[in-house]
Amino acid sequence: MNGILYFSSTGNSLYLAKEVQRQLGGKIIYIPKYQGDGSEFERLIVVTPIYSYGMPAHVYELLPRLDKTKEITVIQNYGGMVGGADYLLYKYAKNNGLNIKSIYTIKMPENYTLTFTVPKFYSNGILKKSKGNIDKIIDKIKTGNYVLPKNKKTKEAKYLKNKSNWHLIGERFNVTDACTKCQKCVAVCPTGNILFEDGKITFGNKCVACLGCYHRCPSKAIKYLNKNKKYRYVNPNIDENEIGKDL
After folding, report:
1. Taking a C-beta distance cutoff of 8 angstroms, is the pair 246, 32 a contact?
2. Contact between residue 51 and residue 141 where contact means Cβ atoms under 8 Å apart
3. Is the overall model pTM greater than 0.70, yes or no?
């Protein structure tokens, strides 16, 4: 059975993981809650967004502990540009002795929108194309048409610097009077960085820049640097309640 390991905060990676499951079969596993090494599966397929020209913190921490005897395929999705993130992941995986068979990249709607707004027609166009693009990737997996990134420049130094500063994002969040104290942000945070204390939502210093809380707050009450932006994004092709679950 395939082990489909995914990280998702707004549903893009979950959507791709569900397409993989539908066409190839397997069990979908949410990476932040997974403590294993993948040895229980015949093959591993990691579905992950690209963050700051690299990997989300949970994927960065997962790869070194995966079973080195298992064939691993990676599907990376990005909103802006790949920026060498595919080769950075490949190099990191090989340095950790992993059996990486293939890395594919696919463009999905941008969700890192703290300081700008993506036109809705643009996101809709990317979503429309994504179905055909993920089908092409899955066909390549089915036929063994493996693709590995060529040796190229990465932005590793920038990625590691950004990664070390992600905690600052959480410290720059606050909530407005629109907050209903539903505590959904507490529930969706993959690091336990958000707490409900003394009747108030508080943010700590363990943010990993996934922005799940920001985009999925039902009342859009979470603000970044006190900017009152209304745009939020959740992939419309999935049930939001499934984000963060094994399926």
Report:
1. no
2. no
3. yes
